[in-house]
Amino acid sequence: MRRTRKTLGLLALACAGLVLATATAPAALALSTPQVEQGSLVSAKKIKSLSATEIAAYLRESKFPVPPKAQGADLYAVVYRTVGVDGSPTTASGTVAVPHKSRKDLWTVSYEHGTTATRAYVGSMDEGDGRAVPMMFAAAGFIAVAPDYLGLGTAPGFHPYMDHASEASATVDLLRAARSLATGQGRRLSGDVLVTGFSQGGTATMAVGRQLQAGPGLGFRLRGLAPISGPYEVQHVQFPELIAERLDPRTSAFYLAYWTASMNRLHHFYDSPAEAFQDPAVEALYDGNHTFDEIIAGLPASPLDVLTPKFQQWYLNPSGAVLKALETNDDTCSSWRPRVPVRLFAARGDREVVARNSRNCLRDLRRHGTDATLTDVGDIGHMDSPLAAMPTVLRWFTDLR
Questions:
Q1: How far, in Å, CA of 160 to CA of 180, rounded?
Q2: Rg (CA), the chain
Q3: Residue 192 contacts by C-beta under 8 Å, 6 or more apart in sequence?
Q4: DSSP annotation of 333
């Protein structure tokens, strides 16, 4: 659950435009339907082409680790076919990074980004972790992808924030699109997939892993999961901490309002924003066009001033639609047994997504017999935790390969 901030000071580098088009065909409503064109490319535009020297400078500037013997890579902004939350055909966008030298039996890494309520603040449209992380893995010889998710980037409609089913389907379809892009360049993918992600992307990492493991017909083999600082238990950890004002108040207000507006579109909590929000104008801030600073300026300073007293109590003692929304999405660690190793990362100093989320996820995974560990990356804040964790994730993924 992170607010996405732009990575400052990234190198301004020349970009080449390359557009690939695919034929339009009817999309189907389920991942398993044979005739679906989910994951087919609509377009792919090259937005970066960096040499080994340039990519090392780029990663150092963005504070992500430089792989040993780094190679150059190309980064593409892609649009591809997928399905919406109701199963209807739609499109989504994301990034795909392709290494220059490695050509055979390439493993794939998927990076799931953290919270943003601004459609332009994602890798296909803006500098940040949605570009830097895929380029880091491509420099290490992986094909790497980063989905924007539904409703962000160039995707139509609203973003279904914290809806893990759509995060998973959008990611799996981007993996398919990346496979087509790579194959068209004469690259051969092994089908082995590693997944990592931060904050909202931490829970998305687990949801993507569950989808890949459950769908062998997709042509991918899940090999490892490395979620960072995810809000795995919104009901039992995040909401009580947030409403008790034990977390950062500004970002807590941001997350609380965002979750409410998003889940109402999926599960129907209210007919009018005035039923849920003390200031009904809050809902309109989450239209995908407001920046983080604009949203924060329109929110109260405390999460207790976001919701009406009725909704505060409903969240603390959930029932009905709220309980359904929580139970549907609070199961990414408890509802399945990963047959691959899971390496969790969290920061004990995190005052936005408390580390108890990760400790409880570790407990659930070990109850299932999963090979799982949890690394405390230190007494640091939420936004610093992916920077602290990523060197270990990079080494571990390279060792697994």
A1: 27
A2: 20
A3: 107, 108, 220, 221, 223, 401
A4: T
The distance in angstroms from the start CA to the end CA of the chain is 29
Residue 217 has pLDDT above 90, yes or no: no
Q: Which residue has the tokens 């659930």?
A: 364
279-320 pLDDT, tens digit per residue, is 999 999 999 999 999 999 999 999 999 999 999 999 999 999
pLDDT tens profile 161-213: 999 999 999 999 999 999 999 999 999 999 999 999 999 999 999 999 999 99
Distance, CA of 35 to CA of 270 (rounded, Å): 38
Closest CA to 229 of 134, 352, 78: 352
Span 241-254, average pLDDT = 93
The token duo for 52 is 């080994």
Strand order across the beta sheet in which 89-99 lies: 41-50, 73-83, 89-99, 143-147, 106-112, 189-198, 221-228, 342-346, 372-376
Residue carrying structure tokens 């780029």: 58
CA 327 to chain centre: 20
- Compute how many other C-beta atoms are within 10 angstroms of the C-beta atom of residue 284: 12
Greatest Cα-to-Cα distance within the chain, rounded to the nearest angstrom: 59
Element housing 249 (H / E) = helix 249-267
Residue 265 in tokens: 């579109």
Report the predicted TM-score, pTM, of the whole model to 2 decimal places. Answer: 0.90
State both tokens at 234. Answer: 């919104």
Residue type, 379: D
Q: How many Å apart are CA 55 and CA 131, to the nearest integer?
A: 11
Tokens of 121: 């603040």
Are 187 and 99 a contacting pair, CB within 8 Å? no
**Any idea what DSSP says for residue 346?**
E
With cut-offs at 50, 70 and 90, classify the pLDDT of residue 103: confident
Q: What is the pLDDT of residue 36?
A: 52
Which residues touch 309 (CB under 8 Å, ≥6 apart)?
none
